[in-house]
Structures are given as structure tokens and as C-alpha cells.
Design brief:
The protein is α/β, with parallel strands linked by helices. It is built from 16 helices and 11 strands.
């Protein structure tokens, strides 16, 4: 599987990285050796396993090289604002004429259409507009700022990958490619489906934070502070897990059958908080890990890789990136028969230009001429 990725930031390179992790040949078309993103964006991390070619897309020769690559590919990924690829001359209409089987994957924040399509935005904005950020509100407090992965990576990159996969499967039957419009707001909204069902279909979720007892006063689904200032999480939603939690915390006087009597929650939550503050995070790990109370410690990015469970599953890998060891998450998911290979560090801009051009029929003299005329780097 060959994928052409037009260099950008955000979810597009992450999607390309995941495809490269799984064995796809991902060719990154970059604009020049002094591409602006190289100075401030962690391109090496998200471009692991890819091949890089630097082309001058304003020159006829550079554009023709890009076309040859597109014609040789199964899919294309781009993450620009709507209309940019069209202005470059590589929009879906032009591409479909020269590569009718190619799947054209586009990922943006607001989508290809709509009043906000041309507006700038970031993860925080997409999560806000979909209503998802408001679900984190507690009485008298502002919404919680989520990490910049909910919109960009989960709502954008993952839905782009899902769309490309579906479109490629369909292309095997029809022989025709199509455009995948992956908007981060679409993905974030789709992931909130359960909350919408709880709100409009079941009446469990309220827009008023003060009425969302489950989020605000639940003693069994919360983050609690330990004696050492670190935190643990409890998520004993089901009755059998809740009963075990009460037993582990020594709350033998609490009737587990009253778990969802919300009037009991504030006082019980205070008791649970006091109990948790009596021990350190390590002590709670020793007591609760591996049980069915639905427990996990809140770990830092530094500490997470060394947790025994994460270490045993090789959740993180160490890569040599430009002479330095860099820890990165391992490829996911896991496959029983065709496991992902050990990730390779990202290539430097234009590092694979000659090999990539040769793969679409350019000879050594032609490549030298392109370099001499600065059509590639």
C-alpha cells in the first residue's frame, strides 16, 4: 500500500505515521529543505517510518514528479484548509482524472463545508463547539481544558484512517476512489454518542452541571488525592465492583444496595476522600491494583512507561532520533499474525528524494537535472 502525504501539522502526519507503523509505504511530499515546520514542529516523531521527498510544487517539473507519485499511490492524505489543494492544482477533481482509483483523504477542523470551513482553529475550539467540553463542567467551575488529542488525534486522525480504510475496501469492488472528508468536529461529535443517548434518550445527563450528580458527587467514579499529594482514580460503576470497593475501603457500614441513592453521595464522597488521603499512591497501588474495584493511579508522562503493566506490554519504545534517545508510544493495535515492526526514526527532509523518484521511473541523470534546477532537494 502506497500513501502520498502532503506535509502539514496536526492529525494528518499522525494518521500517516500510524499507516507507516502498520507497514504502508508512506511518502511525505515536503516543500523544500528549509520547510518552515522543521524549526518548531516535532516532525521527526510523527514522521517515523516515512520516506521524505522535497519538491518545488511551483515548478512544472516538481509538479509533474508529484503527479507521478500520486498516480502510483493507493491513497492521499492532506490536512490543509479547504481549497488549498485545489489552488495547488492537486484537488480531488484533478486527481480523480489522473488517478481514478485513489482514495483522497482530507482532514480539517471544521470540515470542507459550512460557515466556519475557512476559519482557523485548534483542538480546544473543536471540542468546545461540539458540546463535549461542556460535559466536563462542575458547579461554579469552568470547563476542563482537555489535552490536545481529543479533537486532533481522536476526532481527526482516527476518523480519517477509518474513512480511508472503508473507502479502500469499497474501491476494491468498484474500482473507484472517493474523497474522505474527515472533520474533527464530526469525529468528536460521533464519539459523544453515548452522552447524547443518556441525555435525550434516557434523561440521565443534564445540561446543568449541578444536576449531573454522577459527574459531581459520585463517591465511586472520581479522582482522589493521596497522602503524598499524588492521585488515584476509582470507577466502580457496577454493583459487584462497588461492593468490593466498599469492602477494600473498610466501609462495612455502607449498604451497597444504595449505590445509586444520590442523596447519600456527598457525605459518602467526603468519607472516601478522607480514607484515600490516609495512604500514599504506592500504598493504594499495592492494595487495589489487580482487584475489581476499577482502580488506576494517575501517572505522569515520565512515570507511565515504567509501570509494570505498561512495561510488560511494551507500551512505549525508545528510538534514536538525531543522536538522542526519544521515548514514544509503541504502534497500536496489536496483531497476532502480522505484528507491526519496530518503529524507525523519521527521515530528514528530502532524505529519500532520489529513491522515491527512481521508484516512479526517473533515471539518475533526470534526478540530477531536477536537483540542479532546484525542482527537488
Amino acid at each position: 500500500m502506497r500513501v502520498i502525504e502532503f506535509a502539514a501539522i496536526g492529525p494528518a502526519p499522525f494518521a500517516g505515521m500510524m499507516l507507516a507503523d502498520m507497514g504502508a509505504e508512506v511518502i511525505l511530499i515536503e516543500r523544500s529543505a528549509d520547510f518552515a515546520m522543521a524549526s518548531h514542529y516535532p516532525r521527526m516523531a510523527q514522521n517515523r517510518g516515512k520516506k521524505s521527498i522535497a519538491l518545488d510544487l511551483k515548478s512544472e517539473a516538481g509538479r509533474e514528479a508529484a503527479w507521478k507519485l500520486i498516480e502510483s499511490a493507493d491513497a492521499l492524505i492532506e490536512g490543509f484548509r479547504p481549497g488549498v489543494m485545489e489552488r495547488l492544482g492537486f484537488g480531488p477533481e484533478e486527481v480523480s482524472k489522473r488517478a481514478p482509483r485513489l482514495v483522497f483523504g482530507r482532514v480539517t477542523g471544521w470540515g470542507q463545508t459550512g460557515p466556519l470551513a475557512q476559519a482557523a482553529g485548534h483542538d480546544i475550539n473543536y471540542v468546545a463547539l461540539t458540546g463535549v467540553m461542556a460535559t466536563s463542567m462542575r458547579p461554579g467551575q469552568p470547563p476542563v481544558l482537555p489535552p490536545t488529542i481529543v479533537g486532533d488525534m481522536a476526532g481527526g486522525a482516527m476518523f480519517l484512517l477509518f474513512g480511508i480504510t472503508c473507502a479502500m475496501l469499497e474501491a476494491q469492488k468498484s474500482g473507484k476512489g472517493q474523497v474522505v472528508d474527515a472533520a474533527m468536529i464530526d469525529g468528536v461529535a460521533a464519539m459523544s454518542g453515548l452522552i447524547h443517548q443518556m441525555r435525550s434518550g434516557m434523561g440521565y445527563w443534564k445540561d446543568d452541571p449541578a444536576q449531573n450528580h454522577f459527574l459531581n458527587t459520585s463517591p465511586f467514579y472520581e479522582v482522589f488525592e493521596c497522602a503524598d499529594g499524588k492521585h488515584i482514580t476509582l470507577g466502580a460503576i457496577e454493583p459487584q465492583f462497588y461492593a468490593q470497593l466498599l469492602q477494600k475501603l473498610g466501609l462495612v457500614d455502607v449498604d451497597p444496595r444504595r449505590q445509586y441513592k444520590t442523596a447519600d453521595w456527598p457525605a459518602l464522597k467526603t468519607r472516601v476522600a478522607q480514607i484515600v488521603r490516609g495512604k500514599t499512591q504506592v500504598q493504594w497501588c499495592e492494595e487495589l491494583e489487580g482487584t475489581d474495584v476499577c482502580f488506576a493511579p494517575v501517572l505522569s508522562l515520565e512515570d507511565a512507561p515504567s509501570h509494570p503493566h505498561n512495561a510488560q506490554r511494551h507500551l512505549f519504545v525508545d528510538l534514536e532520533v538525531e543522536g538522542k534517545t526519544q521515548r514514544q508510544p509503541a504502534p497500536a493495535p496489536r496483531f497476532s499474525r502480522t505484528p507491526a515492526s519496530q518503529p524507525a526514526q523519521g527521515t530528514r527532509i528530502g532524505e529519500d528524494t532520489d529513491a522515491v523518484l527512481a521508484s516512479v521511473g526517473y533515471g539518475s541523470e533526470e534526478i540530477a537535472q531536477l536537483r540542479e534546477n532546484k525542482h527537488c532537494a
